[in-house]
Design a protein that fits this description.
single chain, 177 residues, alpha+beta, 3 helices, disordered C terminus
């Protein structure tokens, strides 16, 4: 599957919210390495995970900011980095704990958004890490293994939190975090 296209597609879904009239702007930056190796994976699940990351970035930047996605080839596969730089010293406090199910800082959140991301990444035999620094921003790093030689693309069976929610849209994704 094409990881760069999954990133572009997830960001396109939220593009109207990045430039919503009357709200601070969220700029997007792409540094996507073309010709990445293929990965084994379920495009729908990975797209859902990326949507949840973008939605959390939107919620973490009420004063606007910059959302940057990078992809690079690594020895074992592909690294996806999603970084958000906040304006006015905003801080996504508690973000490191947010990858655990039912953790939320939102009044109406379920705390499942980033837990779904972690579940999807794990289902793809990958890892996710997060680092956050007050007044600087937050970076999520996803590592996914490349497709093994001779392997064919297959849809992964849903597991854990990832199969318990509907596909994220700007309207429904808010309910998942």
């Amino acid at each position: 599957m094409d990881v760069n296209e999954a990133i572009r597609s997830a960001l396109r879904l939220f593009e109207p919210q990045f430039h919503e009239v009357g709200k601070p702007t969220i700029a997007t930056e792409y540094f996507l390495k073309e010709s990445l190796p293929e990965i084994d994976g379920d495009p729908e699940l990975l797209h859902k995970a990326l949507q949840n990351l973008v939605l959390n970035a939107l919620d973490a930047m009420p004063a606007g900011g910059t959302l940057t996605f990078r992809t690079v080839e690594t020895q074992p596969g592909i690294r996806i980095s999603g970084s958000l730089r906040h304006r006015k010293g905003a801080y996504a406090g508690g973000v490191c704990a947010a990858i655990y199910a039912y953790y939320t800082t939102k009044q109406q959140g379920t705390g499942l958004g980033l837990a779904i991301v972690q579940s999807v990444v794990s289902d793809h035999r990958g890892t996710i890490s997060v680092a956050s620094e007050e007044s600087h921003g937050t970076t999520f790093r996803i590592e996914l293994p490349r497709r093994q030689p001779g392997a064919t693309t297959k849809k992964l069976p849903p597991t854990s939190a990832a199969d318990q929610s509907a596909p994220a849209t700007p309207e429904t994704a808010a309910a998942s975090d």
